[in-house]
Design a protein that fits this description.
Elements (H helix, E strand, L loop, with lengths): L4 E5 L4 H5 L2 H10 L4 E6 L1 H8 L6 E4 L2 H4 L3 H14 L3 E4 L4 H9 L4 E7 L8 E5 L7 H11 L15 H13 L8 E5 L17 H15 L2 E4 L6 H10 L5 E2 L6 H10 L2 E5 L2 H8 L4 E5 L4 H4 L7 E5 L8 E2 L2 E2 L6 H4 L3 H11 L1
């Protein structure tokens, strides 16, 4: 198959987009001269623009495009003018399939979930992501076209200016880098919206955990998260008996990535920040509740530990839906000691 221009579509969160980076790496290996572009949302556009394999990023934010027909047609015309040979559509949304059909992209590859792949030319039936990691599902689209799979690791290219910013921030905080520096993310990003709390271990438990780490390892703790998680991080800091370093709301995704690179370990919930840490090579201990870590966890799993209660009802998030649960025992019953033992094993 001869390809000169490829478009990749994933309009979702940080983790979802990072899961496509092995696809990008393998396409670059198979087609060294190909021009690759990406359609993503504002949150992920920044780090995609830092990826040397991506030459153009189209920004799509659903709320801005609803009923804004001039903006939609501007996007349509921009894509059509590029005359892409193929699109890899990870949206599982027929609207994007139709957009690519209307733009004249002849080869449209993606998943057919509940009949939403009707505008695709090459489609793989999908009921949901189960039994294997999402990255392996994404790579199935390459396998269907007989593109060799060599790369499986996620990539996130952090510019030097962001590394220098992170190093300067750590110096300003007076952190002794000869001692363990640990990033802690009590939130987990925006992927679940109003129900994001269902993926979060309790703030009080995070406070007890960091206290034990500081007592036993004399570590410096950096609290990270987006601006919407500032109150949560302040709750952790207020409950801790030691001073913590607050970077919450102060970083872009690339700034967060740069701080992860400076840390010996990152402790995170299931969510986008976990995959940022994995992509930049930080060791991680991640806490999972309703979601299956075999499907949505760190990948590949080397240097990464997941803490999972393994109750009979786990995982209750399946086929893109979470079952009703009034107790979240998978997180509520996960003790500080259980998580600390995993952290201790890394440090």
């Amino acid at each position: 198959m001869s390809l000169e221009k490829i478009l990749i579509i994933n309009p979702y969160g940080i983790g979802d987009v990072l899961f496509t980076t092995p696809v990008i790496s393998n396409l670059r290996r198979a087609y060294p001269q190909v021009y690759m572009a990406y359609l993503a949302n504002t949150r992920t556009a920044e780090f995609l623009q830092s990826n040397p394999d991506i030459k153009q990023v189209f920004v799509y934010d659903r709320d801005e495009f609803v009923s804004n027909y001039p903006k939609y047609f501007e996007l349509f015309n921009s894509i059509k003018q590029q005359a892409f040979d193929a699109v890899f559509d990870f949206s599982i949304n027929s609207s994007f399939g139709f957009l690519c059909f209307a733009c004249g992209i002849k080869k449209r590859i993606g998943f057919d979930y509940r009949g939403r792949g009707r505008f695709l030319t090459d489609k793989i039936p999908l009921q949901g992501y189960e039994d294997k990691h999402v990255i392996e599902y994404y790579l199935d689209l390459l396998r269907a076209l007989q593109v060799p799979i060599v790369e499986r690791s996620m990539t996130l290219h952090v510019p030097l200016k962001d590394i220098q910013w992170a190093q300067g921030w750590i110096a300003q905080q007076g952190i002794d880098t000869s001692k363990p520096t640990i990033a802690v993310v009590p939130g987990g990003g925006q992927s679940w919206g109003k129900t994001a709390g269902d993926k979060r271990w309790a703030a009080s438990k995070y406070a007890d955990l960091v206290d034990k780490i500081i007592e036993n390892f004399d570590a410096a703790i950096i609290l990270l998260g987006d601006s919407k998680e500032e109150e949560l991080c302040r709750e952790v800091a207020g409950l801790s008996h030691f001073p913590l370093h607050m970077a919450v709301g102060q970083t872009s995704v690339l700034g967060m990535a740069a701080l992860f690179k400076q840390c010996r370990l990152s402790i995170v919930n299931d969510g986008g920040p976990l995959h940022v840490a994995v992509a930049v090579g930080s060791k991680t201990v991640s806490i999972f509740g309703p979601v299956d870590p075999q499907v949505y966890g760190p990948y590949p799993s080397a240097n990464h530990i997941t803490v999972y209660k393994d109750l009979p009802c786990q995982p209750c998030y399946r086929r893109f839906r979470k079952a009703y649960c009034g107790h979240i025992s998978c997180l509520r019953d996960l003790s500080v000691d259980e998580v600390y033992r995993k952290v201790e094993g890394v440090l």
